[in-house]
């Protein structure tokens, strides 16, 4: 449509200008046959040479280029597809390996944990047993010591008191009465401490 | 004389007068621009075809795009049988295109604005297509003038019309290109003359027209080369694939 309008416009313009300027210039130079033969001659020569060189030299090269490019691109696409497949395969393998190793690692970890826990429990029970035994022995000793120490202290206190009194008074006092007094005193002390 | 819009179409001799017998075949400005256009095509496409890189540079891309453009045009209009004529149509398209485009340079001469040039091209195409048609189909090529499905009564009239339209092909083909180029260049010259005669005050309007026309003319230069080539393909299609 646009083409038609443009062509019509130009033909009318051409007609108008032609009638307007024909009178002034004495016609169109195009219709002057003086150089027609020359133009035909040179047209044939230039176009002929152009056609021959294009046909024989240049166009085969361009079509060659296009063909090689096409084939190379196809080849490259093929190679790329193959490589893609291979890499997909490798990725699958890799993922499988990783999954397997994860499972294995988990198993190892669990085994090791159980073993260690067992070990720890065993050792702990053994140690606790030992400790209990030792604690029991020590407690017994302590209670024995405690029970004996009261009597000993009283004895020592009675002896020292007897000595002291002997020194102070210069007489020997009945040791049994001194022991009774010391016992009373230590009882009082004990009560005081307890209070 | 230079202000005459038709002056730009004058052909004049460059260099000495060359005579072949009694015929004048002197080198003219028209010949010069034919040579320039052909050389430009050869240089550009030779540079574009030289390197064989996978990723093309600008010239290579240009030549390859032109190649596939013309190849697509031919296969679309004339089918795969027209492949042997590819190089001719390519040369034709490029020659007309470059002549048109070189004509757009100020002070350059437009080869295709001369009826004799376009007529010789069109006549060559016409004769060639007719020969191809008769060679492919023999006398059966005459069936081109007898469309199928036409009532017998109308047939004589239709045949006469078909023959006239066939014979007028070289004229329509050549006049279309010539008239387009000449009219466009004349109009640009006229508007250019208006710019000068109206001066600094009133010259702006025709100047803007001139600018717009330049763009339009570049479009027309391409379009007419394309039309010329595609009509050649269509005529070739008639000769190669006879289906009327």
User: How many structural domains of chain B?
Assistant: 1
Write down the overall mean pLDDT of chain A.
84
Greatest interface (CB-CB under 8 A), with counts per chain: A-B, 47 and 65 residues
In quaternary terms, these chains amount to: heterodimer
**What is the straight-line distance between the termini of chain B?**
53 Å
Strand count of chain A? 0
Radius of gyration of chain B: 22 Å
Give the C-alpha Rg of chain A. Answer: 65 Å
The biggest beta sheet of chain A reads:
none
Short description:
The complex is a heterodimer of chains A (195) and B (244). By secondary structure, chain A is an all-alpha fold.
Describe the protein's architecture and organization:
The complex is a heterodimer of chains A (195) and B (244). Chain A is mainly alpha-helical and 195 residues long. Chain A is built from three helices and no strands. Chain A is rod-shaped, with a radius of gyration of 65 Å. Mean pLDDT of chain A is 84; it is low at 20-25. The mean pLDDT of chain B is 90. Chain B has one domain (33-240). Chain B is mostly helical. Chain B has a two-stranded antiparallel ribbon with strand order 1-2. Chain B has seven helices and two strands. Chains A and B meet through helix 1 and helix 2 of A and strand 2, helix 1, helix 2, helix 3 and helix 4 of B.
């Amino acid at each position: 449509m646009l083409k038609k309008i443009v062509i019509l416009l130009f033909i009318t313009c051409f007609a108008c200008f032609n009638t307007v300027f024909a009178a002034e210039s004495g016609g169109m130079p195009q219709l002057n046959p003086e150089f027609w033969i020359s133009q035909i001659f040179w047209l044939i020569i230039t176009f002929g040479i152009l056609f021959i060189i294009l046909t024989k030299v240049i166009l085969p090269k361009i079509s060659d280029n296009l063909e090689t490019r096409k084939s190379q691109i196809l080849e490259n696409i093929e190679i790329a597809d193959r490589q893609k497949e291979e890499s997909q395969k490798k990725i699958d393998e890799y993922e499988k390996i990783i999954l397997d190793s994860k499972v294995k690692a988990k198993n190892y970890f669990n085994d090791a944990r159980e073993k260690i826990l067992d070990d720890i429990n065993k050792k702990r029970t053994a140690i606790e047993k030992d400790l209990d035994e030792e604690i029991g022995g020590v407690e017994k000793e302590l209670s024995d010591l405690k029970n004996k120490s009261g009597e000993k202290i009283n004895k020592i206190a009675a002896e020292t008191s007897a000595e002291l009194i002997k020194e102070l008074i210069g007489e020997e006092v009945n040791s049994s009465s001194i022991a009774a007094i010391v016992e009373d005193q230590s009882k009082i002390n004990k009560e005081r401490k307890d209070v | 004389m230079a202000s005459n819009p038709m002056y730009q179409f004058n052909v004049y001799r460059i260099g000495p007068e060359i005579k072949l017998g009694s015929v004048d075949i002197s080198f003219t400005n028209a010949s010069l621009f034919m040579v320039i256009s052909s050389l430009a095509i050869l240089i550009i496409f030779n540079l574009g075809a030289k390197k064989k890189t996978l990723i093309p540079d600008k010239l290579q891309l240009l030549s390859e795009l032109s190649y596939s453009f013309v190849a697509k045009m031919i296969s679309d209009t004339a089918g795969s049988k027209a492949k042997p004529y590819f190089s001719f149509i390519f040369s034709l398209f490029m020659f007309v295109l470059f002549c048109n485009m070189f004509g757009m340079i100020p002070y350059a001469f437009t080869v295709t604005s001369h009826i004799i040039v376009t007529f010789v091209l069109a006549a060559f195409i016409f004769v060639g297509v007719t020969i191809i048609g008769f060679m492919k189909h023999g006398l059966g090529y005459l069936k081109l003038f007898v469309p199928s499905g036409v009532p017998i009564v109308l047939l004589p009239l239709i045949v006469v019309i078909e023959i006239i339209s066939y014979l007028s092909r070289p004229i329509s083909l050549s006049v279309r290109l010539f008239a387009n180029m000449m009219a466009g260049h004349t109009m640009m010259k006229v508007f250019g003359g208006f710019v000068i005669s109206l001066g600094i005050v009133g010259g702006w309007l025709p100047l803007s027209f001139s600018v717009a026309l330049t763009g339009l003319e570049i479009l027309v230069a391409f379009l007419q080369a394309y039309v010329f080539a595609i009509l050649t393909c269509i005529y070739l299609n008639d000769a190669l694939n006879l289906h009327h």
